[in-house]
């Protein structure tokens, strides 16, 4: 008998990816998967890629989750806090939602609204000292998808004084799965295919999270919806604060990282290379005209941006090697 885990909100895209990763994990036993409108339906009716997983969605209630050793919460923003509070303290929790990411209540109110539920340990193990904090925690707030891609590109440069913390500009394209599974007209195939469209321009909810995690003091993020199911490609630019080689700074920061890879000189990240993996691919240069530092980051938004990252954190919380059950290699074509 392995470590008993449950997934709340398992009918969504991130929830489905969690189920897939848990099913292939050598130490985890999936005992419960819950959903709202899909409660009572077989998991495979929603996730046909999991054919052979003999499980029925339960209703999302504390009683259905309380017997697990660890619970993943893959719920919409604002729904995790109440459910987590109703679980026994002995149950470890990884929240894939935003409810417990921000330390600043005013930032929560500005970008999300409603009551601030308080901050948990932030679930990005690659940040300095964070791996040990995650390992010691019983409650962990998983990163947002854009936040993972951008923070991994930017945080070491700010920490090393290689770039100024102000005037950071990011343009990032994401696949449609980042918007969730709910039916929305602007996400129909006929609307998305052959098109690129910006959204939440100047007011994306991941901005305060990225600033909190990186030390940036001013950050402009323009998200772009791309005609692909999954993946994020973020282009991060900042004003240099010295003459340090940004690529060398990133390479040193992630020299011992299993999942973050600074690519060889002249090789640039692309989303297909990270598909299905828990990896982040990075490359950096200095713009020959403006002098700005440019870092390009690629992740799978459902992998390192959501479910893969959550399993990485769970591994640390459970005393397992953080790479257990996770791949560093993408699936392409």
Strand-helix topology:
Elements: E1 3-8, H1 13-23, E2 28-35, H2 43-46, E3 58-59, H3 62-65, E4 70-73, H4 80-85, E5 92-95, H5 105-111, E6 121-123, H6 130-136, E7 139-142, H7 145-159, E8 168-174, H8 189-192, E9 197-198, H9 207-214, E10 219-225, E11 232-238, H10 246-253, E12 260-262, E13 280-286, E14 293-299, H11 303-317
Parallel strand pairs: 1-2, 1-4, 2-3, 4-5, 5-7, 6-7, 8-10, 12-13
Antiparallel strand pairs: 8-11, 9-10, 11-14, 13-14
Please explain how this structure is put together.
The chain has eleven helices and 14 strands. Helices cover 27% and strands 21% of the residues. It has helices at residues 13-23, 43-46, 62-65, 80-85, 105-111, 130-136, 145-159, 189-192, 207-214, 246-253, 303-317; strands at 3-8, 28-35, 58-59, 70-73, 92-95, 121-123, 139-142, 168-174, 197-198, 219-225, 232-238, 260-262, 280-286, 293-299. It starts with a strand and ends in a 16-residue tail after the last helix. With 333 residues, the chain is α/β, with parallel strands linked by helices. The protein has two domains: 3-142 and 304-317, NAD(P)-binding Rossmann-like Domain (Rossmann fold), CATH 3.40.50.720; 145-301, Dihydrodipicolinate Reductase, domain 2 (2-Layer Sandwich), CATH 3.30.360. The strands form two sheets. Strands 3-2-1-4-5-7-6 form a seven-stranded parallel β-sheet, with helices on one face. Strands 9-10-8-11-14-13-12 form a seven-stranded mixed β-sheet.
């Amino acid at each position: 008998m392995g470590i008993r885990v449950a997934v709340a909100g398992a009918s969504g895209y991130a929830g489905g990816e969690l189920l897939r990763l848990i099913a292939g994990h050598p130490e985890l036993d999936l005992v419960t998967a819950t959903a709202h409108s899909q409660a009572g339906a077989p998991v495979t009716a929603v996730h046909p890629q999991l054919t052979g997983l003999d499980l029925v969605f339960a209703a999302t209630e504390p009683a259905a989750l309380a017997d697990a050793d660890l619970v993943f919460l893959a719920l919409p923003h604002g729904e995790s806090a109440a459910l987590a509070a109703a679980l026994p303290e002995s149950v470890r929790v990884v929240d894939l939602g935003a409810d417990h990411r921000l330390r600043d209540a005013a930032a929560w109110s500005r970008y999300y609204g409603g009551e601030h539920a308080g901050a948990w340990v932030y679930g990005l193990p690659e940040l300095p000292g964070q791996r040990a904090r995650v390992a010691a925690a019983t409650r962990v707030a998983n990163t947002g998808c854009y936040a993972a891609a951008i923070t991994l590109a930017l945080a070491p440069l700010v920490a090393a004084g290689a770039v100024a913390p102000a005037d950071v500009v990011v343009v990032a394209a994401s696949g449609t799965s980042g918007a969730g599974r709910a039916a929305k007209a602007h996400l129909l195939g006929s609307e998305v295919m052959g098109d690129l469209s910006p959204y939440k321009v100047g007011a994306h909810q991941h901005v305060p999270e990225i600033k909190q995690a990186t030390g940036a003091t001013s950050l402009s993020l323009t998200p772009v919806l791309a005609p692909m199911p999954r993946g994020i490609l973020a282009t991060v630019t900042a004003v240099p604060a010295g003459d340090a080689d940004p690529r060398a700074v990133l390479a040193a920061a992630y020299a011992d990282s299993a999942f973050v890879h600074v690519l060889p000189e002249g090789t640039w990240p692309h989303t297909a290379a990270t598909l299905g993996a828990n990896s982040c691919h990075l490359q950096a240069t200095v713009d020959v005209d403006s002098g700005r530092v440019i870092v390009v980051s690629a992740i799978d938004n459902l992998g390192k941006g959501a479910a893969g990252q959550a399993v990485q954190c769970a591994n640390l919380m459970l005393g397992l090697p953080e790479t257990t059950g996770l791949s560093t290699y993408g699936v392409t074509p």
